[in-house]
Amino acid sequence: MTEGKIWFNGSLVDYDNATIHVLTHGLHYGTGVFEGIRCYKTVNGSMIFRLQDHMQRLIDSGKAYFMDLGFSRQQLEQAAIETVRANGMEECYVRPIAFYGYGKMGVNPMPNKVSVAIAAWKWDEYIKGSGEEKGARLMTSSWARLDPRSMPMHAKATANYANSALARVEAIKAGFDEAIMLNSAGMVVEASAENIFIVKDGALATPPTSVGALGGITRDSVIAIAQANGIRCIERDIARDELYFADEVFLTGTAAEIKPVGEIDNRNVGRDGGRPGAVTKQLKTLFEAAVHGEDEKFKSWLTPIR
Ligand code: PMP
Q1: For residue 221, which atom of ligand 1 is closest to its CA?
Q2: Closest residue to atom 10 of ligand 1, CA basis
Q3: Sequence-ordered list of residues with C-beta below 8 angstroms from that of 75, at least 6 positions apart, any chain
Q4: How far apart are the C-alpha atoms of 305 and 148, rounded to whole Å?
Q5: For residue 132, how many other CB atoms are within 10 A of its CB?
Q6: What separation in Å is there between the alpha carbon of 6 and the centre of ligand 1?
Q7: Best residue for ligand 1 mutational test, from 55, 97, 218 (most atoms within 8 Å of Cβ)
Q8: What is the pLDDT of residues 156-191, one digit of tens each?
């Protein structure tokens, strides 16, 4: 995407005019927080999925970095709606970002004003090689996930993504689709930009966010959908080798949605050559119904853009 409108500090500007100064604090020191949101075409027009929850997480992420966003949650929600409308897309990905601006260099960000921007673009498939035939191929990264003692990992902060980028590039260069990240204690945390679930004997398990995983909104949606459909889910520590022996593994994220995993460290997942399993497929179908407004129980997750 290289055209359309971007909301920048309160007004919609042309794509090429949404620019920042080279001495922006967030660029030098990673002092930014952001969100990833999707807008779906539903039975009742375009709707933004879990907009309030995403904007609340943006505000919470900012709080960890003492950011005053200068806009209320409601104003940010309205700005996201306006951005989607202004770009005339029925379905899109929405990217709000808040960061410390320029004026005073040095590690302390506080003297700099915070800027907020919201962009929207078409983002179809995020992880390659995860079609119906065989799930995505993952490798365990040699990079440990950032430790919650070093960074506030519940915050979706730009700084955390240097760690994610190292892992993802390592995986891609090694011929895989995505990386699995362990924490310093060797427990499974998440993928570079997705949460991870395993299915064992019909029940779901996912690492608790206390290991350093982001409190994913798709993760939360999957847990709620599983609960509503009688699928048990527990949050517990997951060891690396448990992934090898799981019946099914899948990733969740706004960009990735629900991605079946077919292979981990060159071992096929499950007993069907790495093809998506029954529970993953069922959850994918239920998730699709929820985001497209076809499930009454989850209508409150959707915000119309008109
Ligand atoms: N973990 C990380 C590190 C992520 O970047 C993301 C994407 N925001 C997720 C998990 C999934 O979160 P969500 O479902 O809210 O997109």
Answers
A1: 14
A2: 194
A3: none
A4: 36
A5: 10
A6: 22
A7: 218
A8: 999 999 999 999 999 999 999 999 999 999 999 999
CB of residue 167 inside a 6 A radius of ligand 1: no
- Pairing relationship of beta strands 136-140 and 257-264 according to DSSP bridges: parallel
Instruction: Please check the confidence at residue 130 and state whether its pLDDT lies above 70.
Output: no
Q: What is the DSSP letter of 132?
A: S
DSSP state for residue 237 in the 8-state scheme: -
Residue 247: partners with Cβ closer than 8 Å, 6 or more residues away: 198, 199, 200, 201, 270, 271, 277, 279
d(CA 44, CA 87): 19
Where in the sequence numbering do the catalytic residues fall? 156
Nearest CA to ligand 1 atom 3: 193
Domain architecture of the chain: domains with CATH? 5-121 (3.30.470.10), 136-291 (3.20.10.10)
Mapped onto helix, strand or coil, the DSSP state of residue 49 is: strand
Residue 131: pLDDT band with limits 50, 70, 90: low
pLDDT at residue 129 is higher than 60: no
Phi/psi of residue 295, each to 5°?
A: -125, 110
Structure tokens at 253: 């994220």
| Ligand 1 site-directed mutation target among 94, 194, 220, 258, most atoms within 8 Å of CB | 194
User: Token pair of 287, please?
Assistant: 């998730």
